[in-house]
Backbone:
């Protein structure tokens, strides 16, 4: 039932984009040299540049893309509609509120953080979780009407953005600049530390999801039917939703919210491998990672030496795609 | 009853405008303000009052009234209480057109930029109108707004790309693009402000026809309203109001949503009553939000978009809760 | 086969103050097709909701094999009782076989792929509902009647002895409706299932039901074997319209004309 080419293509494309992404920089490094350096051979200079400068950034982009894509997959399953995604449900901006509050509360008089910066992803998760809950509570029974749900998300995202702006201005300069750098969603200053943390989060969630894959399949059914087949619907959806929040917050903490990836990637994966959760859990992260990396490559090439915001590129692809999905949904009632 | 409500609103708007001259990082007494306005002696305080606070208050009044009226008109034509220039992407269209003209064609004349903004706003409005028309009522109000928000996101991303590519030229535009009422180009205010006021007044005679439209397209036709022409005319007016507002103050959202909503709460669905009230509420809200930007995070100044979103987002939520929105218009 | 009994014991349910289901007691006879009939808003769907444990009764108990249905684990309940709601929904591109496989949730091992037993149950369900030929088609490619049979196949794959259906003939034309009812009748006759269906069409009830539950204003006004329960007087008072029975030569059951 699973379509083989659909399973193989995403990792292959991601591989190609990765080699390309590593090559792009102030000096172009050709694929043979990239591959040599990756496998511990080649010029020492190449190895240093690639391993310490370029690879962390590329890995972070890959992991963030994969996490956002998976979060989108989960949300689309939970609300049973392909037009849901983390950014439109207010989760991305909610994470930002968490981060700004964290920087505000845990700074001392001298503007130094009083706790480790490593707690920041947790703050992001809490913020994201609060706003996700807020949107769901507001929506109440409207959860089954995705257009309305998403509009609630847009309203709450606007509120979160406003809060972030006000909090940034209220906070002293140091905190403001830290928050701004973070909000800009940059993978420039990527460290291996970040890669490891986000990688572990992604791996743990992915394993959990593989174990939960039958539940993910079961919620393809409407709630009453799913419940009648023996699924604890509320608990399953709550669990999957909280994983979506953690993934979004993780991606946002380390790479910023990259627009529309969580929307497009699951839909592409669904077109490639079908509806089964098992296959989707494999394909979706690769598609998401490839999207972010592809957009990032484009962003760095198009106006070289200038660098465009990756999120703008994904928005230029994602917005028309969202319109397409919306129109298709309206057409089919 | 009707008259007195309007009177109090007008009074409120006037008082807020006056308060706006007194409040800020520096507080002035009424005497100081009066002196600065009547016998300016060129002191620093005079400059702040006449050079900064008077213009920003005027901008807030004019742009507030304009965007609010624009929202009311769009809501009437699309028969959708969520329609407004910000959420429908009309503001984004106007901004994008200005950025393209300024950055790529070196256009800097005020007339040309205004026309460009108008073009951008009209283009987006036309696209939205075409979308609605092509679905013949199948598009729910909520879905229409989603389409608009997405269009806005797309144009916003394009604008962002242009800003990065042409950073040198764009520096000047970044401040304008953020949207706000303070430190705006007074030349633009003097040129476009009266135009906006004129357009707001010009919209009023359409009240009867809009009332008819509200009862349904077929009914409106039966009452002798040329529905298509009316829609084009009103949308043209709404686009122009949004476009000129954007040229003066940059893209400012939520005013067009909140003001008509509050006006309807006050007076119901009669457009003859809605027009003046919406304009006055829009003007008051504009000034109020502008005062808030100065006070909330003093000594800093908060972005007007944040202030309006803090008020607008909850009202948007209230509006979405309306059951009728998921049925076709 | 164990006789699975579903018993409603003096059940009352309300959404707000006024109860939509009042003091309902009913034992659904194993191995029979029971139809629940009554005017709109008489509490038919609510009764089904309470019976399946989706809705919590305010008073009274629902017993499935002697145990409180709300106290059962989800999977244990699903193994004993399957239910098809009024408008079941799944993605349009889902293939029939994959839909039917979802019926195995309560019985399959959670971490392994479908076992030989699962596959067997799926094939049996597909065959019983005559959708084997359509197994690789997407739901959107099916006609209304075919789609309904696919959903019933999913319910069958659950291998529960007790099957509850909320208006299974809703949205079906008369031919498909009869086809669906005949299928349910066959399940009772051939597989010994206990089937409970909410039906709007009293003629479908009259031609297919073994047992009948008549509801009015949230109360069960009559129940029992078709012959004992369904009379012209009972239906006339139930719907507030004169109901007249007619006979077709060669058919035991009457047809009903409402005037």
Residues:
């Amino acid at each position: 039932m699973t379509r083989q080419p659909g399973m193989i293509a995403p990792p292959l494309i991601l591989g190609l984009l990765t080699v390309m992404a590593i090559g792009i920089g102030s000096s172009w490094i050709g694929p043979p040299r990239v591959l040599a350096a990756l496998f511990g051979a080649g010029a020492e200079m190449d190895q240093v540049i690639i391993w310490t400068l370029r690879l962390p950034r590329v890995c972070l982009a890959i992991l963030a893309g994969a996490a956002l894509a998976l979060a989108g997959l989960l949300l689309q399953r939970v609300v049973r509609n392909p037009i849901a995604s983390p950014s439109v449900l207010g989760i991305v901006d909610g994470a930002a509120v968490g981060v700004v509050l964290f920087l505000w509360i845990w700074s001392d008089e001298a503007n130094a953080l009083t706790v480790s910066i490593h707690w920041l992803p947790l703050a992001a998760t809490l913020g994201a979780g609060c706003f996700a809950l807020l949107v769901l509570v507001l929506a109440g029974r409207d959860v089954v009407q995705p257009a309305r749900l998403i509009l609630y998300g847009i309203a709450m995202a606007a509120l979160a953005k406003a809060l972030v702006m006000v909090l940034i201005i209220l906070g002293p300069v140091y905190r403001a600049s830290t928050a701004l750098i973070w909000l800009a969603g940059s993978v420039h200053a990527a460290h291996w530390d970040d890669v490891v943390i986000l990688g572990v989060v992604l791996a743990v969630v992915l394993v959990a999801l593989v174990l939960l894959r039958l539940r993910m399949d079961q919620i393809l059914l409407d709630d009453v039917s799913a419940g009648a087949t023996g699924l604890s619907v509320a608990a399953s959806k709550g669990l999957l939703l909280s994983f979506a929040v953690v993934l979004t917050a993780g991606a946002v903490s380390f790479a910023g919210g990259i627009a529309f990836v969580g929307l497009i990637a699951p839909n592409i994966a669904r077109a490639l491998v079908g509806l089964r959760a098992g296959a989707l859990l494999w394909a979706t992260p690769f598609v998401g990672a490839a999207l972010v990396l592809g957009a990032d490559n484009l962003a760095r090439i198009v106006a070289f030496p200038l660098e465009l915001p990756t999120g703008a590129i994904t928005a230029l692809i994602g917005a028309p795609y969202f319109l397409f999905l919306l129109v298709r949904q309206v057409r089919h009632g | 009853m009707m008259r007195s409500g309007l009177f109090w609103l007008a009074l409120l708007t006037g008082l807020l405008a006056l308060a706006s001259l007194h409040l800020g990082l520096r507080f002035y007494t009424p005497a100081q303000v009066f002196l600065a306005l009547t016998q300016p002696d060129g002191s620093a305080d005079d400059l702040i009052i006449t050079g900064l606070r008077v213009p920003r208050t005027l901008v807030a009044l004019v742009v507030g009234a304009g965007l609010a009226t624009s929202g009311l008109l769009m809501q009437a034509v699309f028969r959708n209480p969520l329609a407004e220039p910000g959420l429908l992407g009309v503001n984004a269209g106007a901004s994008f057109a200005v950025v393209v003209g300024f950055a790529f064609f070196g256009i800097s004349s005020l007339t040309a930029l205004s026309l460009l903004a108008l073009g951008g706003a009209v283009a987006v409005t036309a696209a939205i109108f075409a979308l609605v028309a092509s679905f013949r009522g199948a598009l729910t109000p909520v879905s229409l707004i989603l389409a608009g928000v997405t269009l806005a996101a797309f144009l916003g991303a394009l604008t962002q790309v242009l800003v990065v590519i042409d950073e040198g030229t764009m520096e000047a535009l970044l401040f304008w693009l953020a949207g706000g009422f303070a430190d705006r180009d007074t030349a633009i205010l003097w040129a476009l402000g009266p135009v906006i006021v004129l357009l707001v007044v010009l919209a009023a005679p359409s009240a009867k026809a809009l009332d008819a439209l509200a009862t349904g397209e077929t009914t409106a036709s039966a009452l002798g309203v040329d529905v298509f022409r009316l829609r084009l005319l009103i949308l043209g007016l709404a686009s122009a109001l949004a476009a000129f507002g954007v040229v003066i103050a940059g893209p400012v959202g939520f005013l067009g949503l909140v003001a008509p909503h509050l006006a309807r709460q006050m007076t119901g669905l009669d457009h003859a009553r809605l027009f003046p009230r919406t304009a006055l509420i829009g003007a008051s809200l504009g000034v109020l939000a502008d005062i808030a930007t100065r006070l909330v995070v003093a000594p800093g100044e908060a972005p007007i978009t944040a202030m309006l979103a803090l008020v607008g987002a909850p009202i948007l939520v209230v509006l979405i809760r309306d059951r009728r929105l998921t049925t076709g218009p | 086969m164990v006789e699975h009994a579903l018993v409603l014991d003096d059940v009352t349910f309300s959404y707000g103050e006024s109860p939509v289901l009042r003091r309902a007691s009913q034992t659904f006879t194993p191995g029979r097709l029971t139809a629940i009939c009554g005017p709109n808003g008489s509490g038919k769907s609510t009764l089904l909701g309470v019976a399946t444990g989706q809705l919590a009764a305010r008073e009274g108990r629902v017993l499935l094999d002697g145990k409180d249905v709300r106290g059962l684990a989800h999977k244990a309940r699903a193994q004993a009782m399957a239910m098809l709601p009024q408008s079941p929904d799944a993605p349009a591109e889902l293939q029939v076989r994959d839909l039917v496989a979802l019926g195995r949730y309560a019985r399959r091992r959670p971490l392994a792929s479908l076992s030989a037993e699962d596959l067997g149950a799926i094939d049996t369900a597909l065959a019983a509902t005559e959708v084997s030929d359509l197994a690789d088609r997407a739901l959107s490619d099916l006609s209304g009647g075919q789609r309904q049979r696919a959903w019933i196949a999913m319910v069958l794959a659950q291998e529960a002895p007790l099957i509850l259906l909320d208006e299974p003939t809703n949205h079906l034309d008369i031919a498909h409706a009869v086809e669906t009812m005949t299928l349910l009748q066959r399940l009772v006759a051939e597989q010994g299932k206990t089937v409970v269906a909410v039906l709007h069409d009293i003629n479908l009830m009259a031609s297919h039901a073994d047992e009948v539950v008549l509801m009015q204003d949230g109360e069960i006004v009559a129940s029992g074997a078709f012959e004992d329960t369904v009379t012209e007087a009972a239906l006339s008072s139930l719907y507030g319209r004169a109901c007249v029975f007619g006979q077709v030569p060669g058919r035991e059951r009457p047809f009903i004309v409402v005037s």
Notes: Residues 102 and 172 of chain B are 10 Å apart (CA to CA). The radius of gyration of chain B is 20 Å.
